[in-house]
Each structure stands twice: as structure tokens, then as C-alpha cells.
Amino acid sequence: MSTPGPKPPRRGWGPFLVALVLLAVIGAAAGWIYGTRVADDRAAEKQSQESPPETESPLPPSGEDCPSATQEAAQGAGSSGNLTEVLYIRTDDDRQVWICRDQAGTLFYQGYIGPADGAFIQGENALFLTTVEETGGGYLATNQTDEGTTTYSVTPYRLTQSTNGKESTFAVAERRPG
Predict the structure, then answer these.
(1) Strand order, beta sheet including 95-101
(2) What is the pTM of this model?
(3) pLDDT on residue 66
């Protein structure tokens, strides 16, 4: 038989379930934060492995000689000569670009549109530039004319030409070094 009077409240599952849900939310948030940090660290590590470390002193030239027209144009611009190829690319539509470095470490850009054995005619099918800088994964050459500024971004995978805000990108079909 039961005792008369009010019954003591039953302890239910409610507070336990609330605590369980709260702990699950906290655990999920901590896991998400940890996962994004790991992903960011891996992306940064991959980026640092893909791009070579920047050096303060110029690297000694190594590689193939740059085209003779580029050698002559560089000497005319005051280079000490002996230009070697740092990067060569050819696009599907036979746009070719050489990034060359002389003995003093100065970079040069030589662009050419035409067949491999064709003659370089500066201003018609060829463009030689002395304003070249190294970027994280390639090179940026700048050409100032009366019509505006054109930049050429050259990487082992693409050539991007920007003139007065209009951009054209060309995929690379061949490159050196491999």
C-alpha cells in the first residue's frame, strides 16, 4: 500500500538528454575548428612546397641559351649578355614566351607569335621587354605604350595578357623546364 500525501518528483531523462545534446554540439564545434586548422596548415604546406623559396641574390644562369634575337635586344638594353632560359612556354596557338636571365641576374621577356623557325620582327610578331619581375609562381612583364599598359603573367601552365582591364588567358601546350 502506498503512503498518503504528495509523491516525490520523479527524476526523468530530460536533464540528462539536454546535457548530452549540449556536449555533442560543443564536440562538433571543436572538431570543425580543428579540421579547418588542419586543412589550412596542409594547404599552406603544399603551397610552400610548390613555389621555390625566394632568394635575395640572383641565381647563376643555367639552362638553354635564349634566342639570338633576345640576346641582341638585351645587349642593346645594356645587359652583360649570356642570357639563359629560365622559363619557356608555347601555347596551343603558337604564342611563345621566353623568360631569360643574364649573368647579373636581370630578367627579360621575349614574346613571339609564329612558327618555331620564323624570324623575330620586334613590334610585328615579337616583343622584347626589360620590365620583368618574379612572382610567387611565375613572372610578370609590363609593357607601357600610348594605348595603355599591358601586363603578361607567365607561369608554367598559362599565359595571361591584360590590357586596360581586358584579360586573355592561353593554356600552355609545351614548357621548359619540364
Answers:
(1) 126-129, 107-113, 95-101, 84-91, 166-176, 158-163, 148-154, 139-145, 132-134
(2) 0.65
(3) 93
